[in-house]
Amino acid sequence: MISISAKEILLREFKWDDLLQYQSLRGDAKFQRFYSEEDSAPDKAKELLEMFISQSNETPRTKYQLAVVSASGDLMGSCGIRIESPGHASIGCELGRRWHGTGAARYASIALLEFGFVELAVQRIFAETISENKAAIRLCKTIGMHVESERINDQNFKGQEWTTTILAITRNEWQDIRARHQPR
């Protein structure tokens, strides 16, 4: 069972007790604005929670979708890292509106980078997000990721075309950033 402490939050495996809080987070209209209608459906939270719990029991394990929990025990959202191909992993983070701007997404994302580069020994970690999701792009840049590419109008939902931005960081880039921020 994975459990990672990061500043004032905890990343841990999901459990069935999280369902009501997770449904509440995913049911928020602002939370759903960059998700397709299918991904915003009321039953989607239960389906996802079931998948996350199932993935935690896989061997070998390649997907780690973790609950982001506050110091007081509230479910804040989820974050995950998935090995997509040898040496390459993707990350993602979703928090409820109440925790936007608190730094929790940054702490969770930094913890995922460390987990991916150290524990999973990947060479490159990337994130994909809807280009209009400026907060997600800003988050990725604050943890050292850079824009690699954009896929123009590659998604269609909510009656419109959406462009996807891909950001990434390599293990060497991450190590350089860590070395610059280590106390001397």
From TrEMBL:
<protein>
    <recommendedName>
        <fullName>N-acetyltransferase domain-containing protein</fullName>
    </recommendedName>
</protein>
<dbReference type="InterPro" id="IPR051531">
    <property type="entry name" value="N-acetyltransferase"/>
</dbReference>
<dbReference type="InterPro" id="IPR000182">
    <property type="entry name" value="GNAT_dom"/>
</dbReference>
<dbReference type="Pfam" id="PF13302">
    <property type="entry name" value="Acetyltransf_3"/>
</dbReference>
<dbReference type="InterPro" id="IPR016181">
    <property type="entry name" value="Acyl_CoA_acyltransferase"/>
</dbReference>
<dbReference type="GO" id="GO:0016747">
    <property type="term" value="F:acyltransferase activity, transferring groups other than amino-acyl groups"/>
</dbReference>
<feature type="domain" description="N-acetyltransferase">
    <location>
        <begin position="9"/>
        <end position="172"/>
    </location>
</feature>
